Amino acid sequence: MPQNPERIVDHLELFKQEEYTQLFKNKHEQFEGAHPAEEVQRVSEWTKGWEYREKNFAREALTVNPAKGCQPVGAMFAALGIEGTLPFVQGSQGCVAYFRTHLSRHYKEPCSAVSSSMTEDAAVFGGLNNMIEGLEVSYKLYKPKMIAVCTTCMAEVIGDDLGAFITNAKGAGAVPQDLPIPFAHTPSFVGSHTTGYDNMMKGILQNLTEGKKGAANGKVNIISGFDTYVGNNREVKHMLGLMGVEHTIVSDTSDYFDAPNDGEYQMYPGGTKIEDVADTINAKATVCLQRYTTQKTREYIEKTWKQDTKVLRPFGVKGTDEFLMAISEITGKAIPKELEVERGRLVDAMTDSYAWIHGKKFAIYGDPDLVYSVTSFLLEMGAEPVHILCNNGDQEFKAEMEEMLKASPFGQGATVWIQKDLWHFRSLMCWLSNLIPQPPLIRVALNLVPPLIRVALNLVPPLIRALNLVPPLIRALNLVPPLIRALNLVPPLIKGG
Fold first, then answer.
1. Among the listed residues 295, 354, 292, 342, the one whose alpha carbon sits nearest the alpha carbon of residue 68
2. From CA 182, how far away is CA 202, in angstroms rounded?
3. Coil, strand or helix: which one is 237?
4. What residues contact residue 439 under an 8 Å CB cut-off, 6+ apart?
5. How far apart are CA 252 and CA 289, in angstroms?
6. CB atoms closer than 10 angstroms to residue 319
């Protein structure tokens, strides 16, 4: 029954092997007391119909697979993009293992993080002692340049004060006084991983830039947001490098989650230098590549730093056009001929593929900014989104989506669903050509008609594996033979001139 080392398979294939199928059959017959297979099949078919759809959308008290992660996942992702940073989670060990698993399974890379290992006594008396001991051990054992602290549900329910705890830990000599320890309160029972990213990014900038206001450095700050395609950071650096724009990618995870295999383990590969992050307060402007993962961060920068911020999504031709033209306006740098050539190649590739995408109907779900960007690209290709679902989207997101859809002849038949889950999505997608999901698509989707095209973070193992390589390619089943380039990765969807 163990895996064959000569052919390691995903769990979807592993559990189809004879040993497992027989085990499941015995369990079903001897212990489950289940309904006959015919009745199960009848009900399964009924759940695909309109009557069940109406019942499904009438429910209020139950959520079935909300298609989002916990806040600490986003907080860890933000922290890991800073040089020498060790995420420290004030909570139980099991929670941290869960967060690390999400990222490690997706990237197939080590993901370092520690916890204060809170248990029942800490839940009653508070986690101060756990944090003091945990910070001391983490610093001595792993020698980080910075420790970024976030919380889980347990710490938030009992009201642990991270700022006071960190001060006490430094006062007790557990860690050096000058060790940067930014923190963010990230309760998993509200918000999502995108909220956690925003909270931690704001916490890091508050901590590292305190007292660092000085002469303008002429740079442009880039905050990528919760973008799991690490190649995008490299592509942004490539474009800005061609333009001669001095910049800082705040939290650059491209080397951490796509480190070279050179035979030597590095616990903290790559990342933005701490001194560069500290100097972001003196930049000319901050450009955020996502809107809904940077709301608190942008508000902090504008009000505290008195620095201009812009939201620019370089996804698709239009989005990358707007990005490069805005950068040119901010810096006074011209868009070079090289980028015009790259844009031309992209337009040529899109033209070649247009006949295969035009008129196809899609259902899309995921995080707000990713859904917006993917939908924008599909509209450029003449696709017709029908259902767009975003569990962690709000009314502002819905209004922005509907404005974009209204402006395109291909978006007239689309409906935007917010704060709905994947069981709602299942009822919507039975008759569509294709699905573009972002995090987990549950197994029940596999007995439906549409093929799947996976984009972004895999919170469960993907049905179609989108490699985080450069250039990454996604096989698009019966859509575009034989390969579709993964949207805004390499070559970039860019504008010149």
1. 292
2. 9
3. helix
4. 67, 68, 69, 366, 456, 457, 458, 459, 460
5. 13
6. 22
Listed in sequence order, the residues at least 6 apart from 427 whose beta carbon sits closer than 8 Å to its beta carbon are: 47, 48, 52, 53, 56, 57
Exposure letters 165-186 (e unless 16+ CB within 10 A, then b):
bbeebbeeebbeeebbbbbbbb
CA separation for the pair 64, 71 (Å, rounded): 18
Report pLDDT for 454. 56
Residue 467: give the domain boundaries.
348-485
One domain for residues 391 and 479: yes
- Number of Cβ within a 10 Å radius of residue 17: 14
19 burial class (0-12, 13-18, 19+ CB within 10 angstroms)?
A: exposed
Distance, CA of 365 to CA of 265 (rounded, Å): 36
For the annotated catalytic residues, the residue numbers are: 153, 157
Kindly state whether residue 154 falls inside one of the protein's structural domains. yes
Number of domains the chain is built from:
3
Burial of 446 (C-beta count, 10 Å sphere; 0-12/13-18/19+): exposed
Instruction: Give yes or no: residues 323 and 364 share one domain.
Output: no
Structural tokens at position 134: 């945990």
Q: Classify residue 22 by burial, with Cβ atoms within 10 Å: 0-12, 13-18, 19+.
A: exposed
Angle at which helix 337-357 crosses helix 316-331, to 10 degrees, equals: 160
pTM of the model: 0.85
- For the chain of 497 residues, list the mean pLDDT of each consecutive stretch of 10: 73 83 88 86 89 92 88 96 97 89 90 92 86 96 97 91 95 96 95 96 97 95 94 94 97 94 92 98 98 98 97 94 96 96 93 90 91 94 94 96 97 95 87 50 43 52 29 31 33 33
